Sequence to fold (869 residues):
Amino acid sequence: MNSLTRRQFLADVSAASTTAGLVSLASSTPLFLMQSAALGAEQRGENILVVVQLTGGNDGLNTVIPYKDERYRRSRPSLAQDSSSIIKLKDDLGLHASLRGFGKLWEAGQLAVVQGVGYPNPNRSHFESMDIWHTASLKQTDRTSGWLGRTFDQLRAAGTVELSSPAMHLGGDVQPLALASRDVPTPSISSLSQFKLQTGKSEAERKALEAAMTTPRSNPSDLLNFVTTRSTAAVKLSNRLQEATKDYSTSVQYPASPLAEKLKQVAQLIDAGLGTRVYYVTLDGFDTHSDQAAAHANLLQQLGEALSAFQEDLKLHGQDGRVVSLVFSEFGRRVQENSSRGTDHGAAAPVFLLGAKIKAGLIGRHPELDDLDDGDLKFHTDFRSIYSSLLANWLHWPVKAAFGEQLPGIELFPA
Amino acid sequence: MTRLADLSPRAGWLPFEPTATQPFDRRAAAHLFRRAGFAATFSELDQAVARGPQATIQKLLAGEAEHAAFAAGMQQFATSVLGRNDTAAIASWWLYRMRHTPAPLLEKTMLFWHGHFATSAAKVNDARLMLQQNSLLRQQALGDFAALVKGIGRDPAMLLYLDSATNRKTRPNENFAREVLELFCLGPGNYTERDIQQLARCYTGWEIQNNAFKFSSYQHDTGSKEIFGRSGNFDGDSALPIILAQPAAARFLCTKLVRFFVADEQFVTADWIEPLARQLQESQFQIQPVLSTILSSSVFFSSAARGAKVRSPVELTIGFLRAFDAGANLQSLVESLRGLGQLPLFPPNVKGWNGGREWINASTIVARANLMRQLIEGAAGRFGGTSLVDWLEHHDLKTGNEIVAGLSDLLLPVEPPAPMREQLAAGFAATKDREAAAQRALHQLCTLPEFQLA
Fold:
């Protein structure tokens, strides 16, 4: 893809950009700044973060398992995993048998497991806890913009913005709050193949349709303005994505799962050199209140296989050196299994980082099973430290906007 | 028309009285039907204009009272669909009902309650149980909120969905209690973890066995519970009045109603909600009085409320089909709504559908545009049983400008900009391949940002 198309894409995709004859908003950044900076971003091969959100509250205790601990077996009469099937990470800790994909990455030195991640005063409501992870804000009043969204706003305000639309959400679900920002909208697309505006047979038809969808209104209401700018951005994105992904191919056999399908498209977009810095995908179904065993195993299998194929694909296309994947969930689950062969909302849980450049291995100890907080595992690593390190040490972005306070550091990358 | 600055809650909730500058014309009637239903035909608009706003609203509020034959027919239809135990078939049954019902406010309000008491067929996977819940909601949709909550607490589909089919004295199910407080009655932050734990004890023994509700007295905790400062041997039914007596309850519900019927992002501050909340409490949580107030109010008909909501996928599609009295392939409609994120009976999570701006992203914009094209081309020969060109002629819309003005009255909450009106008028006025040109112009109209709004 030629560089003019890439520049156009980056400028066009942002609904807040100024492009001749189209939408004009007061706080837009001059086009030339974005163009030159954007070119620089691709040429420098800037780092990329892929966020994989496990929605519902993943049972961390059955994912990264202290399999020799008697208390584990006692608390999980039906759910405790068989020691012989566990994928050993070290002599008393291992992965659920279905997480083979992660096992492979561990062997290849491309997996880091951060244990005991959470935050003070755990919140057991799905939506509130998820919001806390998305906004990195423990205060209820402060949850309208995401940790990433606020960072985009700061980049824009400082005028050192590298990209007009630094992130993309792949999925049919609602756009994650983590990406919500005041001035920098992130596109959400459910699939590349379906993402093609049908414009009819003739060029005249196409133009007429695009005019209907993008003509600016002179005095729109807030809501109408929102729809118009999104509509304009959608048309541009559709055109550019068709252009960008025309010539891609891969020999990697991705499994036939929804997550794998999303990551395959992410790999395609990364290879197209669009300059997007953050890709966000979700895998739902982790809220296993009853009959957890089979459902959880299936999800973990899907997770492991998809990410393993993704890593292989990145490597094949020479992109693995610049991509780190973060895998998290909004809380762990209770230590004691419940009366329905499932588990209820808990607190601390492990977070995973994958990639060729991360500091592989275990980070932090497994929380003690005999020192619980009202039946839940206690955290020792604040999730915001992980975010902070990814922003500063991987994406090389400012940290201040995302978090109000100073956080303990964490070493995710080799010195 | 009333400007935003002129609106105060006191005046805003008073009944709308049409004037020369703010008439109850076709546009106002179209606005009413878009909100209190799924849009309407020209004929329905003209009938409404003749009747006047208050009479039209009362007729809508009467629900299916005058339409026993339709209701009976739908029941029979449902029973035949059940034979396949296919939950997607129940979804298409409900879409058919929305498309053809003579009582659109009832179905629209049902959509609201379905989102409020979200239950997904993807998990429950039993057509009969989903239909049973659907019937429960329809019985009380315009009736009694307390009866709704009591009914939903015994509804097999709901309890199965919330993993609350068992609720034992020794291990009370907190999941259901939490959702009763967080999602159904009070909203987040208006209760403590202790309230949840105590309420969970009230519901012990409420179980599902063999897909039916069964009260297991052996499992029921008959001890004293303390909820919101009141103590006693409460169960799920007797705890409810205590919950609803919390000021947060009426406010929570009224806020949701205003968001659903009036505006996505306005008129939900405390001063606007208080009068409605008071009315809801004073009427013992009967839905009709407060809904009547909302729909017949000045603020509802004000310019601030026109185009103040993003149309949901169901509104977009069913609305189009009703406005043109057009036919559609229900099966492909089911698939399209699934793709747009709003297949009835398949909400994404316990919160239902958040709606508003969340309906709009790059993907859904493209999907909506493509879907409208499909509906228009698929409706060929079925615009009220005729072609689009014939339908336009039948409604006395001859010149390009007349057509654009008429369709704008029918379909759009606000006028599109002049250049767009000109482009569309030229399209409709084409003399060569008239049907194809008209369909293209209609498609363009249906991709206007204005069309995405109600």
User: Anything to note?
Assistant: Chain B has a mean pLDDT of 93. Chain B touches chain A through 52 residues (CB under 8 Å). The first helix of chain B runs from residue 9 to 12. The two ends of chain B are 17 Å apart (CA to CA).
